[in-house]
Design brief:
By secondary structure, the protein is mainly α. Helices cover about 45% and strands about 10% of the residues. A hairpin with a 2-residue loop joins β1 and β2. Bound molecules: zinc ion.
Length: about 240
């Protein structure tokens, strides 16, 4: 970016953030397959962008990368973000739920869930520590709040099943599919931890390193502001 001498240089004003994919709920038949040329570019941007998910900021190995096309461009994304936009490709018998959750974007929800899972996986350590137990109870409460979402969604919207949403999306014409946001903008995929059990130790050691339940909120916030600075904390 070049600025003319008359323009005030205000770092805050000129700071731009990278384009992030929205990872709307979707199905795989509407996803494009990258050409060889596009794959080469994706590989190069994976390295230059710090080997992270373009949506939620999670650290990835090259084996963990998925490719996603949105806003006329390609992105490298993590499995959690990818599954939300490819509901029919969720590789597990327990596919999680689609829930009404307008408070957070899909990427932010993924980052928060991952942090909760990472903190909870430490629960075997220091299990006699009273303070630690208290914190685990708090985490438990946050988790159970999220666990309630499928029931709340079911009550108000009469569905929360991933297959119901994915079958509905299959019925839409291309044109209708493009406008699916009108139907599903406030809904998110709520993943099950089991699906990402294999990737969790890697994420816990890379992104939530030193995570202690007592510091979970500050840790998740720190992670988000470092790797995904355009997440609105108040969101
Ligand atoms: Zn992601």
């Amino acid at each position: 970016m070049t600025l003319s001498p008359t323009q005030p240089v205000n770092e805050k004003e000129v700071r731009t953030y990278p384009v992030r994919p929205k990872m709307e709920l979707g199905i795989s038949i509407h996803q494009r397959i990258p050409s060889e040329e596009e794959l080469k570019l994706l590989k190069a941007s994976f390295k230059s962008e710090g080997k992270r998910c373009s949506a939620c900021g999670a650290t990835l190995t090259k084996e963990m990368v998925h490719h996603h096309f949105e806003q006329e461009r390609w992105f490298n994304v993590c499995g959690m973000c990818y599954c939300a936009s490819n509901l029919d490709r969720i590789p597990h018998f327990e596919r999680g739920h689609v829930v009404w959750f307008p408070y957070m974007s899909q990427a932010r929800l993924n980052a928060v869930l991952r942090g909760l899972w990472a903190a909870k996986s430490l629960s075997g350590v220091n299990s006699d520590d009273h303070e630690y137990k208290e914190m685990l109870n708090t985490l438990e409460e946050i988790t159970s709040l999220l666990d309630l979402r499928p029931r709340v969604t079911e009550e108000y919207f009469k569905f929360s099943d991933v297959d119901v949403v994915s079958s509905t999306l299959f019925l839409l014409t291309n044109e209708e599919y493009e406008k699916r946001g009108a139907l599903f903008a406030d809904f998110r995929w709520l993943p099950q931890r089991q699906i990402f059990e294999d990737e969790l130790p890697f994420w816990a050691s890379k992104d939530y390193n030193g995570l202690h339940p007592q510091k979970i909120t500050s840790n998740i916030t720190k992670f988000m502001s470092k790797y995904a600075p355009d997440f609105t904390i108040k969101e």
